[in-house]
Amino acid sequence: MILPALKKTRLDILKHFIVFHVVYLLERIELFYLFLVISFFFAQTKFPFAEAFTVIKWGVLLAFVAVHLITIGLRIKDKDVITSKIFWPLGIFIFYLFINSLLSINIVVSISRTLILLVSFVLWFFILPNYFRKKEQILKLFNYLFYFFAVVLVLNIALTILVPSVFFRIGIYIRYAGITENANTLGMYSVASVIFILYKFKTGSGFEKVLSVLMFLLVLINFILTVSRSSMLAAFVIIIIFTYYYYRKLFYTGIVLGAMAIGILFMFPILLDLLRLASNPLSYREQLFELAILKWKEDIFFGQGYGTTLIITSKLFTLLQKGFNLLIVGKHFGNMFIELLCETGIIGVALFLPIIGMLYKQQKELNKIVSGDLKILTVLYKGLFFGFLIQNLFESALLAPGNGVAFLFWSFSGLLLSIKYISLVENKPKTV
């Protein structure tokens, strides 16, 4: 008996076509991840569509995580899922943030920020490691990111030259920010680009090495124009650690030059004042620190609530901006650790530090078992780890869900699990 063929309507065909291609694209995680990085970047620019990307990036992030949780869930029965001890401190920290949110001065803000951080941690430490399980995949991702930063740096300088009235605003009270929303953002993206510049300078083709040198020159231009001292310091730390492993003569040269620079600053204190004036003549860090400590003392153990800095600082910044219309300020405390203390109290800081401790321990263990390209990536992560943490003594980016550079930092942290898995597989004795 022959069954009659089922007729498909045009609507059915269109539906199957869309579903197939949506799933296909979502499974190409390196492309979607790159789109996420691009979305985070554009959300922090001066372009008219920046606000649209602020919404787009969260929508893509949620869809991305949901689809891949299902995909990974199907593999759990086969016990083919990468896990780590770091899940425990991450889980405890997030759980505490939810409890802390119930005591927040603004429950809605704290819970929404905690949910975003939860989804982001799932992406960084569960989805990325369980997809990037081959060395070729990780190297391909770093290749994509190298060219992404090349485009960003070239686009920034090109628009600065072509439309200086928009992108080269600079003066007594205004710092150069290029195409980004502020000078510190451009500084932090320049720091992140150093990771991929060094990687390609060490491993790339002849063309890529030349391009990496040109990109480094553009980074230096950004640092000079933005006078982003914290970004300069972070980049210096990354380069010093990298050269220690691969270019020892340059390492010693950098140490000598760094010592000379510090000595000159101590000999001529006026240079420190000039740097401060060039960076931000109307810096109110002292008032911000005092405000943060004052608010923390109101609730020493639990703080004011995760994500509430924007609310806490609003009155102070409104007062300052009335006096100085040209004052460019960000509504944060200018120190991630003080901000975390103010928002989540002693308990929050105490629960967050084990995460940092485990990341340090993990990269230290990896250094002993990796080789080749994976060794280079581990060394670069070590530089980023110390450089970005030091930078956050002067910035508040590390736990800011919308910060694109923080997104890259935590992504790289999660990929350490992939690097460990790949190295263990490669080093595993082959049975005959």
From TrEMBL:
Recorded hits in InterPro entries, A to Z, give: O-antigen_ligase-rel_domated (IPR007016), WaaL-like (IPR051533)
Q: Where in the cell is it found?
A: Membrane
**Record Pfam families:** Wzy_C (PF04932)
Q: How does the UniProt record describe the way this protein sits in the membrane? A: Multi-pass membrane protein
Arranged from A to Z, the UniProt key words for this protein are:
Ligase, Membrane, Transmembrane, Transmembrane helix
The record's Gene Ontology cellular component field reads: membrane
The record lists the membrane-crossing segments as: 21-43, 55-74, 86-109, 115-132, 144-163, 183-201, 213-246, 252-278, 337-360, 372-394, 406-425
Give all residue intervals belonging to the O-antigen ligase-related domain: 214-353
Task: Report the superkingdom from the record.
Answer: Bacteria
GO terms of molecular function: ligase activity
- This chain's protein is named O-antigen ligase like membrane protein
Species for this entry: Caldithrix abyssi DSM 13497
